[in-house]
Amino acid sequence: MYSLCGDEKAVHAILNNIVIKNQQEAKMKSKSGTTNEKMKGFILGVVIMSLIFMTSISTYALVESKTIMASYNNVKIYIDQKLMTPKDVNGNVVEPFIYNGTTYIPIRAVGEISP
């Protein structure tokens, strides 16, 4: 072993202080890094939960249905002065109807009848 003289002791003490300060700074940086990571995780969680919430609301809105009173007043469809009977893809007769003063006709069926 060797002994340190006064100047060497002072240098040794200064170096020790520098090492201790560097270690403390490293600890503080690692703590702030984990805080940033936690904040990023929190924000990501909020965004994901918001998307899930908005999706469930829009899905709920799609499920809603409404019952209406429509009248089937024997509406006839004539194309080139010929009476046509509109049918769906399965061959079932599809009737036009009137709702709130507007006549609704099955567009696909009429399009398939047209020459």
Overview of the molecule:
The protein is mainly alpha-helical and 115 residues long. The protein has two domains: 1-65; 77-113, no CATH class. It is built from two helices and four strands, in the order αββββα. Strands 1-2 form a two-stranded antiparallel sheet. A two-stranded antiparallel sheet has the order 3-4. The longest helix is centred in the N-terminal third of the chain and has 58 residues, at 6-63. The protein is rod-shaped.
Strand order of the largest sheet: 1-2
Shape: rod-shaped
Relative strand content: 5-15%
Class by SSE composition: mainly alpha
Quick one: how many beta strands?
A: 4
Feature tags:
mainly alpha, about 120 residues, single chain, two-stranded antiparallel ribbon, 2 helices, two-stranded antiparallel sheet, about 55% helix
Q: Secondary structure elements and their pairing?
A:
Layout: H1 6-63, E1 77-79, E2 82-84, E3 97-99, E4 102-104, H2 107-113
Antiparallel strand pairs: 1-2, 3-4
Compose a concise summary of this entry.
It contains 2 helices and 4 strands. The chain is mainly alpha-helical and 115 residues long.
